[in-house]
Structures are given as structure tokens and as C-alpha cells.
Design a protein that fits this description.
The protein is an alpha+beta fold. It is built from 5 helices and 10 strands; from the N terminus they run βαααββββββαβαββ.
């Protein structure tokens, strides 16, 4: 039996119960700040409409972003989509700077994604990244960069399956944990 196709859905009230259920099970869409899942639950409980609106910010008008060490940096234009196969599979986001492919040092990559553990290993992230690459092209990017830790072999396979090429191994700035990281590039 083949797995259902994945689509990227815009965060909306009709999908919110599945997202909340994933957060309540301990999943976080932010792999650098696992506590972000609990923070998002609090935001949803306080004002679901505002939470949903904040996930799409192409003009970077939202609040600044807190890094893992608490440092606050300017928000970049971007948005988040939810990975959906009839139910929530995870989250994928796209960030950029207008008129440039370059990103500030505090932003590790153009695309970040996470799949809920009970859906991992089934190709959901590979399909979602493929779909998001089309959206990145539409935003005018010539390439995207995606980073992952050297021990995250699953993510490396997802990136490779979408044409990613390793361009460097580096150490993240201290504000992001100061740990080794791999940077991949996918030409669009």
C-alpha cells in the first residue's frame, strides 16, 4: 500500500486541531528551541487567529526572533506551511532577504522543516522540501541553503534527494549553540 501524497497547506483554523495535538504530544516545529512548541501552545490558547496570522509574514512586520541563547534578532520575510497528508505531518518554513540570496549569520538557512516522529521515515520531508523549492523559486531565489547537524543522516538524505550539495562544514555562532553544522545548497 503506497503512502498518501503530501501537500503544503497554509496554516488555517481547520488544520489547527491537528497542529495542537502534535504540540501537546511534545513535538516542536523548532529544532533549535524545543520549548517553542510549548510557547506556541500558549499563543494558540491565548489567540488562535493571531497565532495563525503570525505564521505568514512576507514583509517581516512581526516581532523580532529569539535565538536559543535569548538574543533577539530582526525577523526576516518568510512564512510557514504545514505538511499535510490528510493529517498533520509537520511544518516547513521559508525565509529570505529581499533582493538577495544572502542570509544574515543568525539565520542558518532559507528552509527549515520538521516532521512529527510518528510520521517520520515515510518520505514526508522529502516531498515537502520538493514542494517548498518551487515556492522558493517563485519568491525569486536562485538557490536555497539548508543546514543540518552532522549526525542528522535522515535530513541529509532528504536534502540530497532534492539535489542538495554539501558546500561547507562550519561551527554555528555561539548564540545558536556553537556546535558543528553542515550547509547544503540546492540550485533552483
Amino acid at each position: 500500500m503506497s503512502e498518501p501524497a503530501v501537500e503544503l497547506v497554509w496554516p488555517a483554523r481547520k488544520y489547527l486541531p491537528g497542529y495542537v495535538a502534535a504540540l501537546e504530544r511534545g513535538w516542536s516545529p523548532n529544532n533549535l528551541r524545543p520549548e517553542a512548541g510549548f510557547e506556541e501552545l500558549a499563543q494558540i490558547r491565548a489567540n488562535p487567529a493571531r497565532f495563525l496570522e503570525g505564521l505568514v509574514d512576507r514583509e517581516a512586520k512581526g516581532s523580532p526572533v529569539a535565538l536559543p541563547d535569548g538574543t533577539v534578532v530582526p525577523r526576516l520575510p518568510g512564512y510557514r506551511r504545514w505538511i499535510w497528508d490528510g493529517e498533520l505531518c509537520g511544518s516547513i518554513s521559508l525565509r529570505w532577504q529581499r533582493g538577495s540570496n544572502a542570509l544574515p549569520a543568525y539565520c542558518l538557512g532559507h528552509i527549515g522543516y520538521g516532521v512529527v516522529p510518528w510520521k517520520s521515515g515515510r518520505g514526508r520531508a522529502t516531498q515537502a522540501l520538493r514542494l517548498m523549492l518551487g515556492e522558493a523559486r517563485t519568491e525569486g531565489l536562485a538557490y536555497v541553503e539548508i543546514t543540518t547537524s552532522p549526525d542528522n543522516l535522515a535530513s541529509q538524505r532528504v536534502i540530497g534527494a532534492n539535489g542538495g550539495v554539501l558546500i561547507e562544514e562550519f561551527v554555528k555562532m555561539p548564540e545558536l549553540g556553537g556546535t558543528p553544522e553542515l550547509r547544503f545548497r540546492i540550485d533552483l
